[in-house]
Design goal:
The structure holds three protein chains of three kinds. Chain A is α+β, with helices and mostly antiparallel strands. Chain A contains six helices and five strands. Chain A has a domain of 100 residues: 2-Layer Sandwich (Alpha-Beta Plaits), CATH 3.30.70. Chain A starts with 12 loop residues before the first helix and ends with a helix. In chain C, the strands form six sheets. In chain C, strands 1, 2, 3, 4, 5 and 6 form a six-stranded mixed β-sheet that branches. A five-stranded parallel β-sheet of chain C has the order 16-15-17-18-19. The two termini of chain C are 53 Å apart. Classes of the chains: A alpha+beta, B mainly alpha, C alpha+beta.
């Protein structure tokens, strides 16, 4: 890279005293005093959460109230900080769970470890784990910040479903194209 | 002391107290007021900085009973008026760690050494007048003939607190901070002293022998204020008090971006609180001195006299004086949140090669002018 | 290919124009695998008969052409033989290598064949991968990634078949996932000799079931789960426990019997989830018994001795070892290294007598032998015992009664089960090393807990005198020292300049120089398949094993039994 030398303009007398610059600076700061503040008064005012915001990972249920997670443990596998810990379990196969077979016995997300990367949501084949708009994970003990299954479902709530996978399975069996 | 009985004293039939007790009470009240104002100045600093930066500043702290008064309570809370209480309590109640490696005696002495000069100087600072039977009497703890000299002498002692702290901390950043503060103090003390000599030359016009008394300086400014006919001197003095009080852009002893927290790095809790309060007390007294010397003291407008007798006049004069002082304190903060910190060598260069010669020239010019006028 | 090279009995086959030498009649799938390439397949299994029904292994086959009229080889213009490829593909698994054979495994036609087969297989396959235990080791997943089309044109309803069928006490069946490869049927018929599985119904509705009134309950039923290329057959023990991609696989040896079945121990974070067989054509092919797969549960046995349940310490043992009347009882389930150190300890403390407790069982002539000790021959090899062990220690009992023994060291054996009465135990000071608590450990003056086979390295010598090694799969129980560490410390106390023998490598350095049987062997160099030792020194001993999969008892033994 060629070096280009630039002559520095000599300072005028006024500039040398530094005073006009100070005055203009003072003018700017004075103007700022009368501008409205941009601070958000947090607990009372809440920020508007944009769509696709990556908040706390949560588990969701489908509109039928079934838990969507089938404990495939892909999120546990993909989680970079190893924040997710799942104990898989077999479902009783009664009623709502007739076609699901497998579900999480325990589902833990360690919010002390979670880095909100969203890989779990991306990898989930059942669209069961979502990083939703919950942005403040706080607690008084370490244990409190290891979110258990009920807490995760409480945070997650119900999301609309496009697939109704288990209903389809049920109707397929009832239609009984096996003979 | 040619202007005896100048001091306003309560009439003996009203108060049956010995004089020294009365003086102690007055001193305590004055020191108390100064410290509360400096506490409020801390709040002011936080508020001003937040306004300049588009923030809100402290607006959460509340106290139980007053805070729950409707309308007023929330308003005071929003203004952050209870914040100084919380700040003070915090500084009082926090754990006070004393590092192993410090020189214990001087380490404990340093904050005290910083605090005493700051509160002492206020003793000779007149902050108002009371006019009884047409005679103005200054409201001041000690109306000394050598007022300004006393202020300079005592306030310079404040630097010992920093040097002591820097040295006693036995740690590199405080040490550098202490060194810087002493060097800076010496450099700017000179131009400071020289810059105000014209004021006293003016005050000691032929036929008047007011010495270095501050009250008489104020009285000479009933017409034009000092700043109007001695702007260069005012500017030099103003810059010098910035340097003397270690305010940005001259806060070399602290300069947190280079020296962690400078001379107070090893201090915490109430010891740090003392340094902190001392800094603001310095600012207030410095502002007061500037008002007295250049802004007409308690005269509310140039050339417009206000002769109100009695206690009402006294209160008015104190109010005017406090208003002007508050503006200068605000100006201090305004500057702080506008200008970046100088480099150390720039400060030295500014002090020795610009301020000092300018002060000397300024002195000579005014000396010549006054000589011309008098003759 | 010159004429003299043909004398070694090998023929040349050309795989994608590369010459490969092989025995005549080699299966083409194996042949291609032997050169590091892959022919995808579902139904073919090297240890089962060929059924050729999955059609995944289709390849192009060709032979050098001969002129029909003259019988002369047809040549290309450049003089090379002209290869005549069949117009239609052939299945590799049903084709045996012949001289001069040319096969193409990567041609456009082969590629399209595979895509077609994959598409058909996936038509009715449910999207169960998230809940399927096979996911991660599923051939259907792997081959659809490697050879599949990547999308499906199927829009109709999938066939619904029975799910969650219980085939037997250990095996579950999901018929929707089944690709009808019939491996499990052939295994049951040919290897397990328990013909219980078959297909019913036709076409899309073909379904795997058990014969009416039967169950898949033989002791080898879980091998059907292993060989199932998809998730149709799953183990009920392992079902939904852990996804396979979390599991770390460690080569190990089954301790069920002296067959020494090669295994893989799958663990995650110090917890074992399953044991599967490891292929060793000299020992167990690719099979193992169901009963051997649950041995891992001993790690978390409730009777397990932990560091809390130990009593006394090594310093106390030192005192007891000074006794003049000391006897040692070893265990056939300890490794060669441990038995070597144990024997050495017994020699240096001038042991009165050394014993081993025999554990016999009825073998199944497949992969369970009559000897339940996995390492009887190891004890013989290191010289702990000279003759075959007995299951009752009556000799020791009489020695105790006669007062010839006043200190007894027991290693992982419950002596009360071996004929030593509680009164006899009370007469002597017992030092017990072992994994589990039992009547002996309760009577012992000093109890030192030891590790299970899954928590340490070592070697066993199986019934074929095959030296096989197992590796540590999970960390040992907290606070419990490795057996070798314990013995090494004791030895160093009795004989101060023994040196550090607390690692398998250090013990092997001695073993290879001190015992002629182990000459030239080392733990590090021992291959995963093990190495056959020359056991002729022990030929005269009447070992109890009968015939098993790859073992014939020595002629003399058979005669003796007759």
């Amino acid at each position: 890279m060629a070096i280009k030398e630039i002559e520095r303009k000599p300072l005028s007398l006024a500039e040398k005293t530094y005073l006009p610059q100070i005055v203009s600076g003072l003018k700017i700061t004075l103007k700022n005093i009368f501008r409205p503040t941009i601070t958000l008064q947090y607990p009372e005012e809440r920020p508007e959460i944009p769509e696709n915001y990556r908040g706390v990972p949560t588990l969701v249920k489908d509109p039928n109230g079934r838990e969507k997670c089938v404990s495939c443990q892909l999120c546990e596998f993909v989680c970079p900080p190893k924040a997710i810990r799942i104990t898989p379990g077999e479902l009783d196969g009664e009623g709502e769970n007739a076609h699901v077979e497998k579900g999480p016995q325990e589902f833990e997300v360690n919010m002390l470890r979670c880095i909100y990367c969203g890989y779990c949501q991306e990898v989930c084949p059942e669209e069961a784990i979502w990083l939703q708009d919950v942005f403040s994970a706080s607690g008084y003990t370490r244990e409190e910040l290891v979110y258990k299954k009920d807490k995760l479902y409480e945070l997650g709530g119900t999301l609309p479903d496009n697939h109704y996978k288990w209903d389809k399975k049920k109707s397929a069996e009832e239609a009984g194209n096996a003979h | 002391m040619n202007r005896q009985p100048k001091q306003w004293r309560p009439k003996p039939n009203r108060m049956e107290l010995p004089t020294f007790v009365w003086v102690i009470i007055k001193a305590a009240v004055l020191a108390g007021v100064l410290l509360s104002i400096s506490n409020l100045a801390v709040l002011g600093e936080r508020k001003v900085s937040s306004w300049i930066q588009g923030r809100v500043g402290p607006n959460r702290t509340s106290v139980p009973i007053i805070g729950s008064i409707p309308v007023i309570g929330p308003m005071l809370t929003r203004l952050g008026l209870f914040q100084p209480v919380a700040d003070g309590l915090k500084l009082l109640l926090k754990e006070d760690p004393v590092p192993d490696h410090v020189n214990k005696l001087y380490f404990f002495l340093a904050p005290v050494a910083a605090m005493i000069p700051a509160t002492t100087t206020v003793a000779v600072l007149p902050f108002g007048q009371i006019i009884t039977d047409g005679v103005s009497v200054p409201l001041v703890l000690a109306d000394l003939d050598i007022g300004i000299l006393f202020i300079f002498a005592v306030s310079s002692l404040g630097v010992y607190g920093m040097i002591l702290a820097g040295w006693a901390s036995n740690s590199k950043y405080p040490f550098i901070g202490g060194i810087r503060s002493s060097a800076q103090m010496i450099s700017y003390e000179l131009s400071m002293g020289l810059s105000i000599l014209p004021v006293f030359m003016w005050a000691n016009a032929p036929g008047v022998d007011s010495g270095l008394n501050l009250f008489s300086v104020v009285q000479t400014q009933q017409g034009a204020w000092g700043v109007m006919f001695m702007p260069v001197a005012a500017l030099l003095f103003l810059v010098s008090i910035f340097a003397e009080t270690n305010r940005l852009p001259f806060d070399m002893p602290e300069s947190e971006s280079e020296l962690v927290a400078g001379f107070s790095t090893e201090y915490g809790s109430f010891k740090f609180g003392l340094f902190f309060a001392a800094e603001y007390a310095h600012i207030i007294v410095g502002s007061g001195v500037f008002v007295v010397l250049f802004l007409g003291g308690w005269h509310w407008l140039p050339w417009v006299p206000m002769h109100v007798e009695g206690l009402l006049g006294a209160a008015l004069s104190i109010g005017v004086f406090l208003g002007k002082t508050t503006f200068i304190v605000f100006f201090f903060m305004w500057i702080r949140w506008t200008l970046p910190r100088f480099r150390y060598d720039q400060i030295m260069k500014l002090g020795w090669t610009m301020m000092l010669p300018l002060a000397v020239v300024n002195l000579i010019v005014y000396a010549l002018i006054f000589a011309l006028l008098d003759s | 290919m010159s004429e003299d090279q043909k004398d070694d009995g090998l023929i040349s086959v050309f795989v994608d124009d590369k010459e490969v030498r092989c025995k005549p009649g080699t299966n083409l799938v194996d042949l291609v695998a032997s050169v590091g390439e892959e022919i995808p397949h579902y139904c073919y299994h090297p240890k089962l008969s060929v059924s050729g029904n999955c059609r995944m292994c289709l390849i192009e086959l060709g032979m050098p052409g001969r002129d029909r009229n003259t019988g002369e080889p047809m040549l290309n213009e450049d003089g090379t033989p002209k290869i005549m490829f069949f117009p239609n593909p052939a299945i590799a698994c049903g084709t045996k290598a012949g001289p001069g054979m040319h096969i193409r495994t990567k041609s456009e036609m082969v590629k399209r064949c595979r895509e077609g087969v994959m598409e058909f297989l996936l038509i009715n396959h449910p999207l169960d991968c998230p809940i399927c235990d096979q996911a991660g080791e599923c051939k259907l997943q792997e081959f659809s990634t490697d050879y599949g089309k990547g999308y499906s044109r199927f829009v109709e309803q999938k066939v619904v078949k029975p799910k969650r069928t219980v085939l037997g006490p250990r095996v579950m069946l999901d018929d929707e996932r089944c690709v009808l490869c019939s491996r499990c049927i052939r295994f049951s018929k040919e290897v397990a000799n328990d013909d219980v599985l078959g297909f019913v119904d036709r076409g899309s509705y073909s379904t795997l079931t058990c014969y009416p009134g039967k169950q898949l309950e033989n002791n080898y039923s879980l091998n059907t789960v292993d060989i199932c290329p998809v998730g149709a057959l799953t183990s009920r023990d392992f079902r939904f426990k852990m996804r396979v991609w979390f599991l770390k696989e460690t080569p190990s040896i089954c301790t069920e019997s002296s067959v020494g079945v090669n295994t893989l121990v799958s663990s995650r974070e110090g917890k074992i989830y399953r044991i599967t067989p490891r292929r060793n054509d000299e020992v167990n092919d690719t099979w193992m018994s169901d009963s051997g797969r649950v041995i891992y549960k001993e790690v978390e046995d409730e009777n397990r001795l932990s560091s809390d349940s130990s009593s006394g310490d090594l310093a106390q043992i030192h005192k007891y070892l000074e006794s003049e009347k000391i006897a040692y009882v070893g265990s056939g389930s300890s490794s060669v290294e441990e038995l070597y150190l144990y024997n050495r300890l017994s020699r240096t403390t001038r042991s009165v007598a050394n014993y081993l407790v025999a554990h016999t069982q009825e073998g199944d002539e497949l992969l369970i032998s009559n000897d339940a000790n996995p390492n009887t021959r190891g004890a013989l090899s290191v010289g702990l015992i000279e003759s075959l062990p007995e299951d009752q220690l009556s000799d020791l009992g009489s020695k105790i009664d006669a007062g010839d023994v006043d200190t007894l060291v027991a290693y992982n054996e419950d002596l009360t089960a071996a004929g030593i009465t509680a009164e006899q135990l009370a007469k002597v000071d017992v030092i017990y090393f072992g994994t589990n608590s039992n009547a002996t450990s309760e009577a012992a003056a000093v109890v030192i807990p030891t590790l299970t086979v899954f928590e340490k390295d070592g070697t066993f010598i199986n019934q074929q005198f095959r030296l096989q090694k197992f590796l540590q799969a999970i960390p040992g129980l907290s606070g419990v020292a490795d057996d070798l560490e314990t013995f090494s410390q004791l030895l160093n106390h009795v004989e101060p300049d023994t040196g550090d023998l607390s690692s398998v490598q250090a013990v092997w350095a001695e073993l290879s120089s001190e015992i002629s049987l182990f000459e030239g062997q080392s733990f590090a160099a021992l291959s995963p398949e093990g190495v056959a030792l020359d056991g002729s020194t022990f030929k005269h001993l009447p070992f109890c094993e009968g015939k098993t999969l790859h073992y014939e008892p020595a002629a003399e033994t058979v005669e003796a039994e007759a």
